[in-house]
Design goal:
The chain has 92 residues and is α+β, with helices and mostly antiparallel strands. It is extended, with a radius of gyration of 17 Å. It contains 3 helices and 3 strands; from the N terminus they run H-H-H-E-E-E. It has a 3-stranded antiparallel β-sheet, with no helix packed on it. The chain folds into 2 domains: 61 residues, no CATH class; 30 residues, no CATH class.
Amino acid sequence: MSIEEQLEDYKNSEQFTEDISWYENECFLEGRPVPSDEEIPTILLAEKKAQLEAQMLCDTQGHRYEEVNADGENGRSDLDCQRCGQVFRCQW
């Protein structure tokens, strides 16, 4: 599925409606100016597009993991992808 098709699905989803409300609340709670009702969907779609592009890049070129939480005593590490944000927990 192309990025445009995924964006269209997102735009028509209940999640998109919830994200609009969440974004408005976050702006208000952080004391930032709340964008207009026309601007918020544009902002959210741009963020979603960037996220999908990063995920596609990671799918084709591999993730850029960085260890963020090493637990040598229990033999576990948490790795975060610096490009798309995926979290990978490995047990060793």
